[in-house]
Amino acid sequence: MFLQPNPTQILTPRLLFLLLLLPWAGFSQGNLYQASQLPDSLVSGADAVILKERHQMKILSPDRAEGSFFKAVTVFNEQGEYDVERVAFYDDSRSLSNLQAEIYDGNGSLIEKIKSRDFIDQAAVDGFSVITDTRLKYFSYTAPRYPYTVVFSYEFNTSNTAFIPAWSPLSGYGVGLVNSSFELEIDGQIPFRIKEKNFEGFAIENNSSGRLLQYRLKNIPPFEAEEMSPVYRAFAPQLLVSLNEFHLEGVDGSATDWTSMGRWQYHNLIENRDQLPPETVAEVSQMLEGITDPREKVKRIYQYVQDNTRYISVQLGIGGWMPISAADVDKDKFGDCKGLTNYTKALLNSQGIPSNYCVVWAGAEKRDMEADFASMQGNHVILNVPLEQDEIWLECTSQTMPFNFLGDFTDDRKVLVLDPKGGYLKHTPAYNGAENLRLVKAKLALATDGSLKGEVGILSEGVEYDQRLSMRDFSEERRDTYYKNYWDYLNGIKISEVAWYNQKDSVRFGEKMEVAVLDYLSQAGNDLFFKPNTVDRHLSVPNRYRNRQLPFEVPRGYLHKAEFVIELPEGYVLPEIPEPVTIDSDFGKYQMEIIRISEREIGYQRSLELAPGQYAKNRYSDYRNFRREVARAENINLLLQPK
């Protein structure tokens, strides 16, 4: 679940005071686009500053709305380019008018005006989307120097009212705000709901009255992206609005909670789209002949989908939310997340195995459905298969994903289950602690010339598996670069005889290789020194902040273990074995022990388990001290003396 800190713990009284008393005297509309006129309080630490953002919309009926959008942003560096609006979408249900953009230099002088006819018009496709009925208009501009300002605006009319854009006045870390406003007028016959998220601690003006919503936020300095900070939306203000009666691509809808929303989506998006050709049903039935275990049946069908289909993005049907039919996926052998999930569901249903079509917010950063605010949410779908004693989760878009494994793309978050009797929220599995295992084993030899060489094996499970699986497709050059960066503390490391193996059924990824380092040992007189943690050091210590402003989090825990056998150089002995090290804290546990196997061999064993959690900012120094102690233990030196 997302960390939801109280913003009053984030915004100190001093910062709140500054927000209210920023020096804006003399900052007029006439010089608004002159970057030097912006107050230092907004520019300091900023990649971009939003000068003015205005969202206006009027709901005339459940199937008719109109509105406008305006945004002016000053960009100070390449990172700030992400806050420039360049794109407007349209389709058969949404029309655009008065689309334009203006570019100003740092002195506020107009250098380019882009009219609607100058925008590039194309299908809304990306690297995966090849079938879509949505189009976009955009402009391209490369600034010769920073700062510069972009003003972007358009008006629109639409028959779709299922999606009321949320108002998020603060767009991200490193972005200052001068003025952002939101205005929404709703016809008197349409019931609606709103949710104000994280408003406390921000001086948000609310001039709403009756069926007119009016909000404004002004003069907010950029937030610094402190290390281990929560995702920005966890504490930034946001206004959510949803109509109880709405329209989506020719279909009327009504929903007030997740029960009614899930029921409406089921009957209007996926119902009766699971019909399969009889020959496909017969083929799958024959494939499962003799198998009685329901779990094994699900596994075989999942493998069948992976072997016989491929993923492409398809944005057609009810605003891109309706899956293409199971029959079409079966015929064409491709589909998007919706189509492939629906196809898998249909195959299971053909064998008498019920399953749940689930809508989710996907991404490496965990994001929940808003439990107390039902609306059209999510950007991906997955499949849930309930069994008598268990349940199975399937990511249907991947041809390589292991069975019953979601990875960090959809783990540990609330999803919406579409059901004919009514929708409900369900939580996906979390991968935490020891489930995210990385085990590094090595048999290494030290030589009198100072070199180190030997065999290294790395085993990864859980999210660690997910993060390393893509290495299978690395070229030799990219592979070598990866390992050299991974072992950046080993100067001149050479890697050879690399082998990777994917144990898909057990969700394990393995790596084996030979390593060699020329100058691993250091010398002082006749003595030699070396670090026994040769190939798995945790040396990272988070940054120090004199006055940290934000809480911090460890979104996923892990268990990293190291087991080495090290042969000492001929003619040298290890006179003393250090005591075992144990570091126990609220954040995790560290254990390290060195054992003498023989006169020429020692064993090194290390375990670091990091717990997931969300923590107040006043605990940050404690966490940093824990990581500093770990790094110190990881970096110890051992003395070797001549016999």
UniProtKB/TrEMBL annotation:
Q: GO molecular function: any one?
A: peptidase activity
What Pfam families does the record tag this protein with?
Answer: DUF3857, Transglut_core
> In which domain of life is the source organism classified?
Bacteria
Coiled-coil residue windows: none
Question: Where do the DUF3857 domain residues begin and end?
Answer: 71-223
Alphabetical UniProt keywords: Hydrolase, Protease
Which GO BP terms apply? proteolysis
InterPro entries from the UniProt entry? DUF3857, Papain-like_cys_pep_sf, Transglutaminase-like
Domain named Transglutaminase-like is located at 286-394
Where does the signal peptide begin and end?
A: none
Spell out the protein name for this chain.
Transglutaminase-like enzyme, putative cysteine protease
Q: Per the UniProt entry, what species is this protein from, by scientific name? A: Robiginitalea myxolifaciens
